[in-house]
C-alpha cells in the first residue's frame, strides 16, 4: 500500500502554475497555510497513476487582491471589499513510486512528469513524514550506508548517505570555525575505519585528528627536526618524503628563483643534472632495463651531491679560447641555484626531504612507502589501520602545498599504474584545503603545482578509484575547478558572504533557497545535497565517539579559574627545536 495515499479533502491547495521544476499552489484555507513552513516537504499529484511528486516549500505568501489584481501599496479599500489569494512556491525534487518492479514505495531523484493545473497538493507531515523518511533512509544495501545523523525534518529517521556515490563523485565539507566541520569529518572517518578493508588518507594540517584511535586508524607524522637523529622511519610512524620523489615542476618551484634573469638556464641545467644522476643510479643498481623509458619525473632515487657537483662544475667551467682559457657559457650563472640547494639541504625543517638516511635511497624503499600509505586494511601486515592520518603540522607553511600534493600525487600515480582488477579505491581527506588547493596562486609557485595535481585528481580520480573529500572553513579561497567536480555538499554554518556565495553556486537552481539557511544553522547541523543523498535536506550530525582537537578554547571560563596553567618554558623549548 502506498504511504502517500491521500484523500482529496486533505489537500491544502491546488496547482495554479507550473514552470519546469517549480510549482505555484493556491491555498484557500488560511489555517492550513499558517501551519506550513519553508523548507518542509509537500506532495503533489502526478499525471501518472501510482506516482507522487515530492517538493520543498520555498516561499509562502498572502496577497490582497481586488478583482484578481494585487493592490498597490498606496491603494486602500474597505475590509469587506478585499479578498486574499494565498500562494505557496514549491521546488520539485523527486518522485515517489508506489511499485517499481518488486519494490514498493521507491523514491527517485527524477521528474518524469510535472503536476497538471488544478492538481491537488498535500502537506507531508506526522505519520506520513516518518514513513517517507524511512523510505529515504533505505539507500541501496546496508553495506553502502554512510550515516551522518538524523534528519531535522524527522529526528526519528536516520540520515543515510550512499557511501559509494559519496566518495566516487567527490565531496566537500565546509563550515565556519566552530560550526562542527571537524566533528562531521570525524563522524565520517569513524565509519570508514570500521569497514573491513577501508583505505583512506587524511591530510591533517594542524594535528586535529590525533585523538581518533582504533583498530581501523593508524597515525603517521611527517618527520620534524626532532626526529632526524632518533627516528627509525616508517616503523616509528615517522614519514620521510625524499627529494627524489618531487616532480620536475615541484623541484623547479623549490630550487629555482623565477625572478633571477638566469632562471631559464638554471632550470635547464638542473633538469639535465637530475636526469644524469638518476641514470647513474639505475646503472649502479643494475636496473638497466629502465634506462630506455625513464624521465625526470620517474620515481628513481639519485644523489643530490652528484647534482650539486655537476652544477658546480658547469658554474666554474673554463673553456679553451683563441687567446687561452675563458669562462664557459654558464660561468657564475648558477651560483644562486647552487646556494639554494645548499640552504635547503641544511635546513633542519626540511629534514624529511634530505635527511631520511641511506634507507630512503634504496631502490626498494618506494614500495615500502606505498604499501604503508596506500594499502587497505586487508593488505596491511597486521590487518589494521586502513585509515592513515598524516600529521603535517611541522611542515613549513611555504612548502606545505608541495608536500601535501606530493602524497596526493603518489596515491593517484599508484592507482593510475595499477591493473584495473587490482585497484583498491582510496579516499583523500583534504583538511584545511584552502591552504594547499588555493583559488589563486603565482605561476610556478608551490601552490600552483599543488593545484594542478588536485585538479587532475578531481577530474580523473573517479576512473582510477581516487576520491576527494575537500574540507575547508573558507570555500571562497578553495580552487573553483576542484569544487566544481565535487558532486556532494555537506555545508555547515557559514557567516562570510563570499563563502555563502560559493556554496550557493554549488546548489542546484531549484534549491537556491537552501543557501539562505547557511548563516543560521546550529552547531553540528548541516545542509546535505548531492548524488549520495536521495533527499536534499538539513541533518543534525551525530557526535563522533572520539572528538578531534578542534574545540574552541573557552576564554571566559579559563580566565575565571585561579589555577596556574604554566607551560611557557616548554613552549619556548619546542619553538627553538621546531618540534613538539
From TrEMBL:
InterPro entries to which the protein is assigned, alphabetical: HerA-like, HerA_central, P-loop_NTPase
Residue stretches making up the Helicase HerA central domain: 148-409
SUPFAM superfamilies xrefs: P-loop containing nucleoside triphosphate hydrolases (SSF52540)
Domain of life: Bacteria
Keywords: ATP-binding, Nucleotide-binding
Gene Ontology molecular-function annotations: ATP binding
UniProt keyword Nucleotide-binding, yes or no: yes
Signal peptide residue numbers: none
Annotated Pfam families: DUF87
Matching PANTHER family: HELICASE MJ1565-RELATED (PTHR42957)
Name of the featured protein: ATP-binding protein
Provenance organism: Massilia agri
Amino acid at each position: 500500500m502506498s504511504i502517500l495515499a491521500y484523500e482529496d479533502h486533505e489537500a491544502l491547495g491546488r496547482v495554479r502554475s507550473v514552470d519546469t521544476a517549480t510549482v505555484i499552489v493556491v491555498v484557500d484555507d488560511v489555517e492550513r497555510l499558517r501551519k506550513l513552513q519553508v523548507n518542509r516537504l509537500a506532495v503533489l499529484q502526478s499525471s501518472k497513476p501510482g506516482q507522487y511528486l515530492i517538493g520543498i516549500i520555498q516561499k509562502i505568501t498572502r496577497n490582497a487582491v481586488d478583482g484578481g489584481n494585487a493592490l498597490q501599496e498606496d491603494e486602500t479599500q474597505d475590509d469587506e471589499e478585499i479578498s486574499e489569494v494565498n500562494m505557496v512556491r514549491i521546488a520539485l525534487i523527486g518522485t515517489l513510486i508506489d511499485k517499481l518492479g518488486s519494490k514498493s514505495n521507491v523514491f527517485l531523484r527524477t521528474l518524469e512528469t510535472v503536476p497538471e493545473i488544478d492538481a491537488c497538493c498535500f502537506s507531508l507531515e506526522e505519520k506520513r513524514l516518518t514513513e517517507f523518511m524511512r523510505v529515504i533512509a533505505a539507500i541501496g544495501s546496508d553495506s553502502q550506508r554512510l550515516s551522518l545523523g538524523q534528519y531535522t525534518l524527522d529526528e526519528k529517521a536516520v540520515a543515510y548517505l550512499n557511501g559509494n556515490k559519496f566518495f566516487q563523485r567527490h565531496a566537500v565539507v565546509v563550515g565556519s570555525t566552530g560550526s562542527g566541520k571537524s566533528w562531521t569529518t570525524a563522524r565520517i572517518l569513524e565509519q570508514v575505519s570500521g569497514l573491513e578493508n577501508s583505505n583512506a588518507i587524511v591530510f591533517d594540517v594542524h594535528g586535529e585528528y590525533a585523538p581518533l584511535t582504533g583498530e581501523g586508524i593508524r597515525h603517521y607524522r611527517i618527520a620534524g627536526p626532532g626526529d632526524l637523529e632518533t627516528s627509525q622511519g616508517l616503523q616509528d610512524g615517522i614519514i620521510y618524503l625524499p627529494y627524489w620523489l618531487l616532480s620536475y615542476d615541484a623541484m623547479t618551484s623549490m630550487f629555482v628563483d623565477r625572478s633571477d634573469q638566469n632562471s631559464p638556464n638554471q632550470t635547464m641545467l638542473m633538469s639535465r643534472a637530475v636526469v644524469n644522476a638518476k641514470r647513474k643510479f639505475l646503472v649502479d643498481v643494475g636496473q638497466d632495463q629502465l634506462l630506455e623509458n625513464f624521465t625526470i619525473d620517474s620515481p628513481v632515487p639519485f644523489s643530490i651531491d652528484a647534482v650539486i657537483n655537476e652544477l658546480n662544475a658547469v658554474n666554474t667551467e673554463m673553456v679553451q679560447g683563441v687567446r687561452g682559457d675563458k669562462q664557459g657559457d654558464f660561468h657564475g650563472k648558477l651560483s644562486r641555484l647552487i646556494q639554494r640547494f645548499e640552504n635547503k639541504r641544511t635546513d633542519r625543517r626540511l629534514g624529511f626531504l634530505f635527511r631520511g638516511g641511506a634507507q630512503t635511497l634504496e631502490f626498494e624503499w618506494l614500495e615500502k612507502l606505498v604499501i604503508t600509505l596506500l594499502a587497505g586494511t586487508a593488505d596491511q601486515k597486521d590487518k589494521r589501520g586502513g585509515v592513515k592520518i598524516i600529521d603535517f603540522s611541522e611542515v613549513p607553511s611555504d612548502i606545505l602545498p608541495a608536500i601535501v600534493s606530493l602524497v596526493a600525487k603518489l596515491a593517484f600515480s599508484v592507482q593510475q599504474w595499477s591493473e584495473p582488477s587490482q585497484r583498491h579505491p582510496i579516499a583523500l581527506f583534504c583538511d584545511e584545503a584552502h591552504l594547499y588547493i588555493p583559488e589563486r596562486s603565482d605561476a610556478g609557485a608551490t601552490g600552483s603545482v599543488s593545484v594542478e595535481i588536485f585538479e587532475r585528481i578531481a577530474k580523473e580520480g573517479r576512473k582510477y578509484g581516487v576520491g576527494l573529500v575537500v574540507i575547508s572553513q573558507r570555500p571562497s579561497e578553495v580552487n573553483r575547478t576542484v569544487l566544481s567536480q565535487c558532486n556532494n555538499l555537506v555545508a555547515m554554518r557559514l557567516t562570510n558572504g563570499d563563502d555563502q556565495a560559493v556554496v550557493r553556486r554549488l546548489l542546484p537552481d531549484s534549491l537556491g533557497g537552501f543557501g539562505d539557511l547557511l548563516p543560521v544553522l546550529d552547531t553540528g547541523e548541516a545542509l546535505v545535497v548531492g548524488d549520495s543523498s536521495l533527499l536534499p535536506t538539513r541533518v543534525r550530525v551525530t557526535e563522533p565517539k572520539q572528538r578531534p582537537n578542534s574545540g574552541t578554547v573557552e576564554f571566559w571560563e579559563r580566565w575565571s579559574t585561579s589555577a596556574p596553567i604554566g607551560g611557557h618554558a616548554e613552549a619556548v623549548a619546542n619553538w627553538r627545536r621546531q618540534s613538539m
